[in-house]
Amino acid sequence: MSDYGLLIDYKYCTGCHSCEVACKLRLNLPDGQYGIKLIDDKPWQIDEDTWEYKWLPVPTKLCDLCADRIEAGKTPTCVLHCCAHVMEYGKVEDLAVRMKELGSRTVLFVP
Amino acid sequence: MPFGKVSTPVQWEEDGYTVTRTNSWSAPGDHPTGAGMKLYVKDGILEKVEGDPEHSILKGALPIRMLSLPEYVYNPDRVIYPMKRDPKKRGDNTAWERISWDEAYDMIVGKVKEYTEKFNSNSIITFVGTGREAGNWGPTISCRVFNSPNICYMQSGWSCYGPRMAVTSYVLGAPYPEVDYAAQFPDSYDDPRYTYPGCILLWGKEPLKSNPDGFWGHSLVDMMKKGTKFITVDPRLTFEAANSEFWLQPRPGTDTALAMAFLNVIINEELYDYDFVENWTFGFEEFTKRIQDMPPAKAAEICGVPEEKIIGAARFFAKSKPGAVQWGLAIDQNPNGVQLGECLIAIMAICGCIDVPGGNVMGAIDIGGLGSGYSDLDPQDKINEQIGVDEFPALVRTLQFTDPDSVLDQLESGAPFKLKMGFFTSANAIANPCNVPKRWENALNTLEFNVATDIFINPTISATCDLFLPVNTYAERDMYVATHYGAVGLWIGGIKKAITVGEAKSDVEILRTLGKKLRPELWQYDTDVEYINDQKLKTLGITMEELWEHGWWHVDYEYQKYAKGKLRADGLPGFMTPTGKIELYSTMIEAWGDDPMPYYKEPPTSPVSTPEYAAEYPLVLSTGARTWSYFHSEGRMVPKLREVEPNPLVDINPKDAKKYGIIDGDWVWLENSYGKCKMKASVQPGQKEGALAAQHGWWYPERDASAPELFGVYEVNVNNLTPYKTVGVLGFGAPYKCLMCKIYKA
Questions:
Q1: Cross-chain Cβ contact A53/B62 below 8 Å
Q2: Residue B17, beta-bridge partner list
Q3: Which of A83, A89, A102, A106 to mutate against chain B (most B CBs within 10 Å)?
Q4: Which of residues 71-110 of A touch B (CB under 8 A)?
Q5: Torsion sign, CA atoms B139, B144, B150, B154
Q6: pLDDT mean over B372-380
Q7: Which residue among B10, B132, B230, B595 is the one 20 to 30 A from B109 at the CA level?
């Protein structure tokens, strides 16, 4: 298992596709292939005033956590370009601590 | 000085690339958001782009419309040389022939001189699109180059931004009040002067996707994380709506009733800011009487929103300090929208939102964005000759643009005089804004000579133009970008040239060159930068060179300017209105011939106003649903964008879908008495029952470019269903968001 991962505070993910497209551009992927894929759960109603409205970007087998960018002192392209600033890269144990700070509706991926 | 803080020069070397720091605008499309970007160039080719983490507003974030820039710049469909076509062959996209810029300029200059001599320069009309940088130069080209006051934005009722700008100028005496998102501070939200809004009332707008008028949409998410609450008024479930304390889902086109009911609750329950009302508003007593016409129970019935939700939301907003209102395109696209605008400014005013930290900011300065150039008309009173000024004086004199439907009339009738030449600056009329698009196509073809400046041959150019001038993208030119087109100055970013593509030129270079040939006394400038420094930035005491050096510049902002005598020309405290106050009773609107206070009027066609029509066309149709991929009619040829959003969609509630036998993903026709269009159904439980939301601006770059196919534009154009001259009393607002139609499987 990798020591590093991606933390996503998905309560604020707006579904803007920036992670997905930035990654495809970096990896030069054809139509239908993704390094991170935005999963669409069409909004549905829980009760009169509550809606489940979420998107979730999920790293694929093609995700290398932007090894070359990390080496150059940058963040992964999905993290940099996320319009809602909901993605963080780091050591798994640090991200776990961060998850606790962020509270609900977070997910930690270790690609 | 409130310049940005950057750790690099504007250009530097990195890993074999020359990197250029810039701020996006268009083309390719977005509003003037000024996303901070780094452009990576190798051997003269833009290979990739990155967001700039040092950017004070976006902080590295980058929407996909900007991420895919290289696919746009080097798109195989792009045309990078001037081309001409025999006017007899309009519609034949194989008939274009490459020419030199000199030949192109000579053709234009020859025609302008000929028409000016024979028919008066008013016979030359400039058409502008929406939101792109080129829109800023329309008045300059028209007035300062062609010496014609006839500038046309081809959307019935000037239904984009114009009505809101007009209402603001009448009632508030200032440019558009925007939600305070700290764009004026180099340290952004960390500036000690800043406060996060307690609650944002988001009315008829989807800022995340649209970045409206330069407001960075995702700043709403930044605020949400810091505890800002939301009330969303929208028939559609958006991310904002799903995360709101209150989501009110009115029947489209009825929201003036809803806004009046908000005011009814706030005033009758005495939840307003007494001090502000007493000192800074005019007509509160009459306004209070008027607002009694719309108790929440009545609005509930009209709008289809539960009464207790209206009351709850109104109370919640009024008690939130500071509150801020964000009002969207839905205000413009409604013949009753001027009244809705009056209501929303009244809410801002009486709840104490105006010009306070975390409320609605009023731009301190105008950096000569929209509207620049009128003073160059010769003689000056040519401004009184704008088309439509007699029928719609409020619209024409306030916006200083022609009335679009009146231009259509004049093209068709040739009266009172025949228009001869059209100059299209990034204006894809028949695919994007205009109502009755086929009628417009035919009318535009009555012009003898049509010139287009654009990046791609679009349906309008293929159908109507004789000369194509390739303009460049923001990666290929020196420019600046200012929020709200410069009219609500909070922030200005530098745009820096990184590459050259073919023979494409900037809009400013084209108008400078034509200007030198046609009115040389006004055009001494040898470069775009010289022109911008002198004509746009000089009054601010900054230059393009400084913008590049520091990345961007923030206005030195001061709150509560009205109390300090900083809004009026005479230096007295107050607002730049006839009474010096925010006019709840609008003396200007009264003078123009409409009711001085808000009233509710049903949409022109609706289940209530036209029950017989509704029997045949039962669903309320809103157009203009925003997407992540596209800016109006741009971008369908860009592979990464098209992959995300491959089809034109119409949202439908599951109950309606079941009723009409439609399942998710079905191709459907939307049809009413004006026309029809074909889209793909997207069944959405969050869509208002009885209402549809359709995307706009679609065409298929992959299809045959020539007439009659014209990239399939008429098959998919939702504006086939939009009527002609169905506008408010003063001419503002056509019902783009409150049409009626039926739906059936294709």
A1: no
A2: B14
A3: A83
A4: 72, 77, 80-85
A5: negative
A6: 88
A7: B132
Buried-exposed string B363-387: b where 16+ CB fall within 10 A, e elsewhere: bbbbbbbbbbbbebbeeeebbeebb
Strand order in the sheet with B45-51: B11-14, B17-23, B36-42, B45-51
How crowded is the C-beta side of B42, counted as CA atoms within 13 Å?
7
Q: What is the ipTM of this complex?
A: 0.98
**CA-to-CA distance for B457 and B451, rounded, in angstroms?**
12
pLDDT at residue B362, rounded to an integer: 87
Give the tokens for residue B9.
Answer: 């020069």
Q: Measured between CB atoms, which of B59, B218, B640 is closest to A25?
A: B640
Q: Residue B310 corresponds to which tokens in the numbers above?
A: 């209206």
Instruction: Return the closest-CA partner of residue B736 out of B338, B156, B182, B276.
Output: B156
Q: In angstroms, rounded to a whole number, what is the distance separating the alpha carbons of residues B233 and B516?
A: 50
> HEC profile for B268-314?
HCCCCCHHHHHHHEECHHHHHHHHCCCCHHHHHHHHCCCHHHHHHHH
Supply the pLDDT for residue B368: 55
Q: Distance of alpha carbon B218 from its chain centroid, rounded?
A: 18
Closest CA to B736 of B690, B693, B704: B693
pLDDT at B364: 59
Q: Summarize the confidence of residues B262-276 as an average pLDDT.
A: 98
How open is the CA angle B470-B476-B480, to the nearest 5 degrees?
110
Q: Name the CA dihedral angle for B411, B417, B419, B425, rounded to a multiple of 10 degrees.
A: -90
Q: What is the distance between the alpha carbons of residues B483 and B58, in angstroms, rounded to a whole number?
A: 13
Instruction: Say if residue B1's pLDDT is above 70.
Output: no
> The tokens 């502008």 sit on which residue?
B128
Beta strands B582-583 and B83-84 are unpaired
Give mean pLDDT, residues B481-494. 87
Find the mean pLDDT for residues B526-535: 94
CA distance B340 to B168: 12
Asked whether B481 and B495 are in contact (CB, 8 A), the reply is: yes
pLDDT tens digits for B82-108?
Answer: 999 999 999 999 999 999 999 999 999
Which structure tokens are listed for B707?
């007439």
- For the ranges A39-48, B220-229, B300-309, the lowest mean pLDDT is seen at A39-48
Average pLDDT over residues B722-739: 98
B643 vs A: CB within 8 A: yes
pTM above 0.90, yes or no: yes
Question: Residue B309 corresponds to which tokens in the numbers above?
Answer: 């939700």
B21, B551 Cβ separation under 8 angstroms: yes
**Omega within 30 of 0 (cis) for the link into B149:** no
